[in-house]
User: Which sequence fits this backbone?
């Protein structure tokens, strides 16, 4: 997450959320009381989260470590009823998060 500049993405997601008529997502939402795990963006009332994967284009070893670190967190979130969507920064900027979030929010 530290490699992604979130302010422009956050502003874009807030704007798109208003256009879609859904609440604005919470940034850095802490979803696990006994860990410091956070989602990049979350709609807690819907239990929908978005993770923006900034390290997908790093070295093989670095990407592998990042995946291993996030796997436990994502599995825990799933067990707790969260639906976690993963996107690259470019996908978020192009608005490719909107249809999946709307489908989940409407129960499809």
Assistant:
């Amino acid at each position: 997450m530290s490699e992604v500049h979130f302010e422009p993405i956050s502003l874009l997601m807030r704007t798109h959320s208003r256009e879609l008529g859904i609440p604005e997502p919470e940034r850095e939402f802490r979803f696990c009381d006994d860990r410091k795990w956070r989602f990049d963006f979350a709609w807690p009332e819907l239990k929908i989260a978005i993770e923006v994967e900034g390290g997908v284009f790093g070295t093989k070893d670095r990407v592998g470590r990042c995946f291993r670190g996030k796997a436990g967190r994502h599995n825990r979130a799933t067990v707790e009823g969260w639906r976690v969507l993963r996107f690259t920064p470019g996908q978020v900027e192009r608005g490719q998060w909107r249809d999946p979030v709307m489908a989940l929010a409407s129960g499809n």
Remarks:
- The helical segments are 6-20, 60-79, 89-93, 98-105.
